[in-house]
């Protein structure tokens, strides 16, 4: 029996019967999480960590696609971490998961150095004093760098990764120079980059980037991912990512 708390709902992820618990008063996942789970390329035997895990959507989707052997998630909000743990239990995958409440800035007190093969993260995109705010403090923390900043995220990922381990992140294009600078500072070499556009004639609205800890210098820029066709419908590639075709 699934335990639901006030305002929670269960959403079907439409892959292998997997479901997730969400609360719209806190934060519900968007297309960025789905795209990140598809873009990331851990090995089938990798130990995968998802930072800023929120509802646990990224590692749960990756588990549904058998992208990794074991999964962990770190979330600063105690309620969100507990809810993610209930989603894991609901899907019967507890033996492959470890969801914890914790602050990335204290990561060295929680995990061993180099203990993961692959790290994913869908972090807050907006610097603390920029952009529109939301009446929900939980949503603000998810969107704005209030509890942590980009350097906290990348340095934490670098600490967790073994040598040659992989790192994948979704973020905003206007922060690409800062992203690459920080990745290199913490010895995560950018290896793949893909921009995401709403339509063919629109500017990129998201970026997906993958790096390798202590990897060699070589960056592959992949074709742009277009979300919608001229009729406003998902493109064929996006439909495949969502498992619709």
Major β-sheet profile:
9 strands, mixed
Radius of gyration of CA atoms, rounded to a whole number: 17 Å
- Output the helix-strand order: EEHEHEHEEHHEHEEEEH
Unreliable stretches: none
| Overall mean pLDDT | 93
- The geometry reads as globular
Give the helix/strand class: alpha/beta
Helix share of residues?
A: 25-40%
Number of DSSP helical runs: 7
Cα-to-Cα separation, first versus last residue: 31 Å
Strand content: 25-35%
* Number of strand segments: 11
List the helices and strands and how they pair.
Blueprint lengths: L8 E4 L6 E4 L8 H9 L7 E5 L5 H8 L5 E6 L2 H13 L6 E5 L14 E6 L15 H7 L6 H11 E11 L4 H10 L2 E10 L6 E10 L6 E2 L3 E2 L9 H6 L4
Parallel strand pairs: 3-4, 3-6, 4-5, 6-7, 8-10, 8-11
Antiparallel strand pairs: 1-2, 7-9, 8-9
Helix pairs in contact: 1-2
Keywords:
nine-stranded mixed β-sheet; 7 helices; two-stranded antiparallel sheet; 245 residues
């Amino acid at each position: 029996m699934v335990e639901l708390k006030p305002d929670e709902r269960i959403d079907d992820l439409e892959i292998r019967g997997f479901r997730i618990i969400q609360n719209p008063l806190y934060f519900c996942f968007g297309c960025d999480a789905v795209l990140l789970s598809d873009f990331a390329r851990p090995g089938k035997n990798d130990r995968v960590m998802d930072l800023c895990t929120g509802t646990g959507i990224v590692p749960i989707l990756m588990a549904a696609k058998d992208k990794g052997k074991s999964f962990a998630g770190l979330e600063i909000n105690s309620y969100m971490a507990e809810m993610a743990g209930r989603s894991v239990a609901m899907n019967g995958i507890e033996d492959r998961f470890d969801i914890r409440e914790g602050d990335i800035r204290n990561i060295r007190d929680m995990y061993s150095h180099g203990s993961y093969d692959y790290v994913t993260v869908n972090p807050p995109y907006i610097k603390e004093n920029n952009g529109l705010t939301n009446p929900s403090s939980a949503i603000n923390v998810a969107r704005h760098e209030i509890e942590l900043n980009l350097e906290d995220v990348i340095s934490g990922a670098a600490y967790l990764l073994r040598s040659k381990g992989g790192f994948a992140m979704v973020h905003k294009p206007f922060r690409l120079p800062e992203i690459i600078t920080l990745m290199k500072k913490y010895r995560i070499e950018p290896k793949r980059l893909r921009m995401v556009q709403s339509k063919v004639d629109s500017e990129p609205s998201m970026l997906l980037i993958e790096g390798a800890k202590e990897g060699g210098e070589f960056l592959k820029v992949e074709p742009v991912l277009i979300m919608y066709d001229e009729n406003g419908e998902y493109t064929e590639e996006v439909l495949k990512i969502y498992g619709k075709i």
